[in-house]
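request received
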Amino acid sequence: MFVQIAFVFILIFALGFLLCNAIKSDLSLDEKIGMAYPLGIVFLSLLMVLMNSAGQKFSFSFLVLGCVMVNSLLAVYLLRIRKLGISELLSISSFRFSISFPNLSFFLLLSTIIYILYGITTKSLYWPTFSYDGMTGYEQMAMVMAAEGFINNSIFDPISGYATLRHPYPPFATMTFAIPYFLGLGTSKVSMAIMFISMVVYFWAMIKKHTTHTLALLGTLVIVSTPEYVAMSAITMTNVIHSLFVSGALVATFVYCKSPTQSNLLWASLLMGLNLWTRTEGVVIVPCGCLMILIALYRMKKRSIKDYALSLGWYVSIPLAFFGVWQFFLKFFIKNDFGVSGGRDFPLTLAIDNDRIAQMYEHISNLMSNSVFYGITFLLFIITLVVNIRRYKSQNAIFTYGLLSSFIIYLILYYQMMPENEIRLMMTTSFRRGLFMLVPAVGFYIATNSFMKQLFRILYTPYNQIKAKDFRSLFISYSTK
Amino acid sequence: MAEKKSNQTRNNRSSSIPPINNLVVFIIMIALIYAISQIYGYKWLISNIIEDNIKIIEKHPNLSYEKKMEAKLGGPATYLLHLKKNTPKNATILFPPDSLMNIENAPENPNKWLKGKSWTSYFLYPRRVVYEREKGSSLIYDSVTHVAIMNHWGYNKLKDYTVTTQSEFNVLPLTRAQLQQEKSTQ
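response:
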């Protein structure tokens, strides 16, 4: 039994790993390792939607068969047609890990991260799902989906059904939770644990590309020690999983802004699309990515409308496709209209309501001052933002604009959508958890901003070589010196 | 090219950390990690979420699924798992009116959640659940096969037989024929 289960997880991992190579072979090895399991799940969720649309049941056999077939096809495509060698598939050429021994801080940070990951994974694997939202939503949907082989299953049956707003969520998270049920396990936790570890590896890899190994670990530690974010990773909720694609998309968009190649654009657009394949509310992040691209193109002195249209057109195409496919599926394949009409309306007119603003401000202050929710993660973000304020024209500031606009637009979303009598409930539940999607992006910013990089440069410079201008350069960019 | 160069510079720099800097940064890091771990939220994460759970896991490494659910959700979970164990997969189970759906000394939320079909269905799937409050409105009310006995409610719903020893919580088939059939298959 154990061998069979391990084999299927390896198949899914291999599928995602090969997909990473097919989509963007220049990712580093640790980025591919981090993104392999999530991309394997993405493929399976798409396959299930496709098969269900054709009236076909998705079963364990199809899961294994699909993985084996696509793995074989991808291997042939990559090795024969793209002519990638094993070293390129594994990104061995780009893999460089040179950390001086013994860099004591590096090992301290690494062991702290491993301790937290060990603790939270052990907890996650030990306890079955007991969160209300999981039991009456995502986990339940995963369980029934695996038993019946259909997304449009008996939960949505108008006669005996008990569908809630949590059931018709886009299928990525549900498929993550459903894999263990397809394998005959009684709880989804093992898949959630693999997903969380994959996420941490991907965040570490993504931060490491933009800073030193030690700072990358510091950024990763900020992420994995954000109290409620980590606690939530051990229960069946979608917010932590969502953060992989939201933060991943913001960083990938930033990479595209710095290096506008077709493959970077495709990767950024794909991650933005997968954000919508996890939670529909992620649609509000798409304009923030567009804003980053607009600023980057403007700074590159692109004056032709065609340049803007092409970049933005490609960028929004994949998110729109994912969004469209899911809305189409909800409309035509879910047995009742619950999934489509159950959502809240979004008023398009923005009206100033001082009372509502005051209430939201009060709740946000409470959330920020209670260290159980986000610890000091957002406080650190504000501090690093302030100390980098004079670098607002630098290229790195584009990421700051993306992150800040994501916060603002998320606030506007709640400001517009919350019914008057539910402000308290929504601010302390869904809004609070919703902000998790930006935690990894904040960790990335904390570790990669110019102030921190310069601070660590000073900390590791022989003390007799440190000059006064080194301290001045903490606050001003090199170009303006 | 420029990126490669900066990586090389970075690597060169990291490979030549002066020992005194190495030590000073290490001490700063320890102090920072210690200070931050004293903030309430991080204390909560380390002691409540990680350490307490590790202690429980070490103490009860082989706890059954039922016991774990009972530990987290109390009596309501135990009761629902009892219903699952004692009814066939194709059963339709009738639940009492909301006012009687209460398990004494059970945690507040799970007790409240018993009144919601999506929560009870999580435990009982693929069995179907119908509530007494749905009488007249639910199309499956008439196809009930089992009655969930809670706080002595439900004995009067049994169609053609009576039970001499009436326990406070139980689950029973609606008809004598079903009762005999289930007894014979056990």
